[in-house]
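Narrative summary of target 7.
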Amino acid sequence: MRHHQIELLAPARTADIGIEAFNHGADAVYIGGPSFGARTAADNSVSDLGRLAHHAHRFGGRVFATVNTILRDDELEPCQKLIWQLYEAGVDALIIQDMGILQMDLPPIQLHASTQADIRTPEKARFLQDAGLSQLVLARELTLPQIAAIQKVIDPDRCLLEFFIHGALCVAYSGQCYISHAHTGRSANRGDCSQACRLPYEVKDSAGRIVAHDKHVLSMKDNNQSDNLRALIDVGLRSFKIEGRYKDMAYVKNITAHYRKLFDEILQERPELAAASHGTTRLSFEPDPNQNFNREFTDYFVQGRKEDIGAFDTPKNPGQPIGWISKVAVDHVEVTLDDAATELHNGDGLCYYDLQKELVGLQINRAESARSGVWKLWPKDAMASFKDLRKGTTVNRNRDMSWVRTLEKKSSDRRIGVWLKLEESPQGLQLSLTDEAGFAATAALALPWQAPKDPQGAHEVLTASLAKLGETIFGAIDVQVSLPRPWFVPPSQLNALRRQAVQALEEARLAGFERLPPGRPVQPPVAYPEEHLTYLANVFNEKAREFYALHGVKVIEPAYEAQQEEGEVSLMITKHCVRFSLSLCPKQAKGVTGVQGTVKAEPLQLINGKEKLTLRFDCKPCEMHVVGKIKPAVLKSASHSPLTFYKKRPTAIGMH
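Modeled conformation, tokenized:
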């Protein structure tokens, strides 16, 4: 099993982005196929996934295809057909949410549980391992002790744990958000989220008082676990995932390279661990997560609950502070920089907060240095359009054109280290190659011995020529010329010998590449931790129902998308708590003189235009439920038959 290996898992919107992820240090890439992946605008052809898999396998890397939507009954057969096509194209594993897939006729391909499977407990993790899943993407909300507790029940020879370490955060437990479907008919569980969490809301208390106005109270900062990697390894995580299947090439290059550097440092410290693929990256830039779109960073709940996890002022990218407005003219502004060495460029994106704390963009048409540390900037838009822009305003940069241009070019070279040895053979010469992973190949050259004109320099000439591995994926660690006498070898023939040996080594690597073994479910089937599943289990087809029935579940309700929950229900369950973030939590008030006992976890109301949602607080597990009901227009537009495979209606579970 791979439990001594550390896997850096990068996202790819396209195969070309995936190829660059590997070139910048990824051990594995996850990508959507032509359908059934939980990102509707990030689909790729099977042939493109095959092209990506071929590139990955050259480095011993892996490609994971997302098949992580919940499926209707009429989609089961097309999905099964697609899975076989993905396997035949060389895809190494599938990331799934719908347990109905385990009831299909599948090729011998490894299955990984998506974060949409909402894995938060040791019981659920152990069950999924015993049901045949080989890698589990844990919920983003878990703390270090919670991850450690899950690791204790997992057999590392059968199953690995995976965790998101960077990128945008869904405020809900993944797979537990139905607001988009309730309001628009677009299901997050089917890859079409409308992102209600990024909208501004007015927050009212039970007495109708406004406690927050026009705040993005469900919008999280972006995840960044750069400082927690060692701790996450120590609690048993082995696959480290970067979010971003909608992200562009520059993001994937930069963030992959950033974490590759950090993991390489850790692997230097810990010889008992190894990278999950082969080769070393050489970068032409210094990775910096602040350069890409972000809502500022948080490490979320890994080190416990924090007060500053939300991006409440704006869901946009505020960038990094670079200076302040020192003059406002009719057609331009002057900016005094915090660091005089900073350079501004035509096309840079700047921004500032107006008096209402709204982020205002300021794109630069032309930038000119006025004097040391002061720049004149002519914006793309008319000066009159910039609200509250005046002397003293702090300016941030959220787009650096110089950086953008750097990452538009080739920015990394990945090479697998190889030892070369040239020896005499009865027919002439033999070149042997052995790479850092232990793969070996030999090529022969039939050539009569010829004395060189310069016997003293002949050895150096051969050594230098053999070390030139050019556009191959290999880099010479050492060249050994073990010849009993000096040789002259025509350069064209020596180059041909080297090319032949390199090709043979590539073929040996691909022949020796081992596909990941599929997990084997425990027999007889183990019992699911619960006997009763509500809509929160996302059971949307007969095969999923069969799966849970096989594992002892007695009552199975259909998914929310079946549109049989017409009343008020929890449309989102989240570890984020608006009361806590607004300092209105009863636990925060404990022991505060004059406050203790006066703050209660009463419901709050969220209002955005005509949309109204209720926040209810379940304080024992420290969770928040966003409560609402499906819109009549969504109910009317239902295009599929209702599911009726539950046995009886459950009684409602109350919350305070």
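The domain at 316-408 is CATH 2.40.10.170 (Thrombin, subunit H).
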